[in-house]
Amino acid sequence: MKSAAALIPHTRPSRRLVRLLGYWCLAALLISAARIWLPQAAGAVAAGWWTAGALLLGAALLDWLTGRRVAGLDGQRSLPGNLALGVENRVRLLLRNDGARRLRLTVCDRLPQQLQARELPRDAQLDPEQEVRIDYPLVPRRRGHAVFGPIEVLAASPWGLWQKHLTLGRADAVKVYPNFLGISSLQSLSTEQSLRFLGLHQQQRRGEGMDFRQLREYREGDSQRQIDWRASARMHKLISREYQDERDQEIVYMLDCGRRMRAKDGELSHFDHALNALLLSAYVAIKQGDAVGLQAFAHPGGAGRLPPVKGESAINLLLNHVYDLHSGTASADFSGAAQQMLADHSRRALVILVTNLRDEDSDELLAAVQLLSRRHLVMVACLRESALDDLTQRPVAGFGDAVELAATRDFLDRRGRLLQQLRARNVLVVDSAPDKLHMALVESYWQLKRSGRI
After folding, report:
1. d(Cα 214, Cα 212) in Å, to the nearest integer?
2. I want to staple 134 with a disulfide (CB 3.0 to 4.6 A). Which of 32, 93, 349, 416 is the partner?
3. Is the pLDDT of residue 402 over 70?
4. DSSP bridge partners of 167
5. pLDDT tens by residue, 311-366
6. Which residues form a coiled coil (predicted)?
7. How does pLDDT run across 117-165, given as a tens digit for each residue?
8. Percent of the chain, pLDDT > 90?
9. Burial class (CB in 10 A: 0-12, 13-18, 19+), 162
10. Contact at 8 Å (CB) between 197 and 290?
11. CA 252 to chain centre
């Protein structure tokens, strides 16, 4: 397949030249009509027509000769270090004219397919020794590795009859990550501040954690088993032990990359919503000192696996592992994913299965969850399609609407029964709209953490 630059002629006629040629051809039709109505003036008009054609041809040839070389024009592109899916960014093009003549330019950028830009192409005029900056908004529509080609420029000849195609600068590459701006806004906050930022309330629990933190004076409400009698005797007052939630736990996300996750809710797919929620909840867990891992199944490129990692660099490692991860067209194999999970992770962990459930998944899913529950604490995070909720709220205007409403409610009832079956097997269930999944996951994780289950 030819590149975009190969499809554009090196030098092409401008709209001005095409318009002048059109007027000249239209004049030929008028001359033909004049031979019928004014035969005595036809000769003079025809001579004028040929003269105009010769002048136009001479001007076009001279303009082509003087404008075929564009010297001293340089351009470069300034990009952000990385891009976030669905978030508008600004890209800057810098053009400089070190040549001897004024340049009239039409500027466009050669974009990757997964990026969407506005306000392009743009017109610019550059005098000698002058530079111009062109900013345009850019919104990524797909994650992954994005490669920009050179800047595309059409430079007009001195009289504007021709346009010369030029490519300036060099190719640039940038990574399009999931929407990590939520993580960026939390990095400078404490755990309590982060939870308040997300709209969650941290429930205090004193003295019931697993790890010893410090000694402090006795407070009303402390249990008797918290009292350190030796320290109390030494200090001649009651001293209590204070504990914190146990750290260094493992949390492994099992991410469904199957065909159902390709469904869209708004501008983003369920898979992208799931990734955003995964990253934000993983960041909260990492700040608590837990290790976070990933197992992607039904992935087009095979299984994507990241062993549990912790520490300040863990979230960046997770980001770089999933930024080019995409959903495929295969069906999710829950049983195979559960067996792989047990083979890879022998230590007890909180396993969070992120998927989009259907009632036909019940047998396979229940068997997979029962298998995982023998060793791990299992949570199923299910994305609920907002379009179905909207259908149940829509007024019924006719027989077709009534049938559609009955089918939707029947589907939701069967799906609800599957979620009840999961809860009956002591499986934690998070059922949320895609755009609220991040808050639901963080809240469920924090409840588990404060209750001492992880």
Report:
1. 6
2. 93
3. yes
4. 152
5. 878 888 998 888 888 888 888 889 999 999 999 888 899 999 999 888 788 889 99
6. none
7. 988 899 999 999 999 999 999 999 888 889 999 999 999 999 989 999 9
8. 28
9. buried
10. no
11. 22
- List the structure tokens of 453: 């289950």
**Cα–Cα distance list, 254 to 194, 310, 334, 416, 450 (Å):** 25, 17, 10, 21, 23
Which tokens go with 188? Answer: 């400078």
Burial category of 161 from C-beta neighbours within 10 Å (exposed 0-12, middle 13-18, buried 19 and up): buried
Q: Both tokens of residue 397?
A: 């205007």
> What are the structural domains of the chain?
1-177 (2.60.40.10), 181-187+194-201+246-451 (3.40.50.410), 211-244 (no CATH)
Torsion angles phi and psi, residue 161, rounded to 5: -90, -15
What is the model's pTM? 0.71
Which burial class, exposed, middle or buried, applies to 171 when counting CB atoms under 10 A from its CB (0-12, 13-18, 19+)?
Answer: exposed
pLDDT, tens digit (0-9, with 9 covering 90-100), for 337-350: 999 999 988 889 99
- In the 8-state DSSP scheme, what is residue 203? P
Q: Which two tokens stand for residue 80?
A: 């952000």
